[in-house]
Amino acid sequence: MAHLADAILTPRRDGAYDAVLKWVLLMALIVMGAVVSYDYGLLSYLFEADRSKITVLITVLYVAFSGHCLWILVELAREYRRALQVKAMLATATRLPDLPRGSGLIDGYIADVIRSREHPSEVEGNAHLLMMSLGASFRRRTKIGSYGTDLLYKLGMLGTMVGFVMMLNSMGDLSNFDVDTLRAALQKMIAGMAVSLLTTIAGLIGGILLRLEYNIADALVTDISQTAVSFTEVSLLPLLARGERNV
Fold this sequence. Notes:
The protein is mainly alpha-helical. It has seven helices and no strands.
């Protein structure tokens, strides 16, 4: 929360935390939609009619993955701000400045690029591989989003199968064809159909919304990678080469 407040209140901010603000806006719209659905009784019906409770599981997992997405966005935004700071410092430098060293991925990447100059004949190859490694490191953090989205879809499909089984099970209770037996069997069939449809809807909506959240993180990863490539090719490598010539 401190990082979010800093992103909002800092004068002439660099936009590093804009992705977090987009996530907050998206979640505000989702919460608003959930409140309206609850007010109309849709959410109450969703949880009460689903006897399998798979919709409850989908909801809990969605909230957990959304929290993870926020945490990832804050970490990535911190790295993006660091990349923007390094780019600004290198853009106006005539020689390689003393860059503050931290524990982030950007700081580790810069240190690796500088160390790679120990083998001048392999400079371009080393820098290219290091940029690829940096991008892979960032993408690995958001990869769980694809797993979460797929998991919610699969749970919705599982609910569909459970609903069909409940419907078929009600057919086995037809020992005779009196009114009470038919009424009970029909109620069980309707309950099974409700489970099938409601879990499918919950899985689809949860998966779509979760994919939207992690798309914000994926876009931020692209911005960080592009910034790293920019300051490496435009400023960092030329400054390192100039320093070697002056030695």
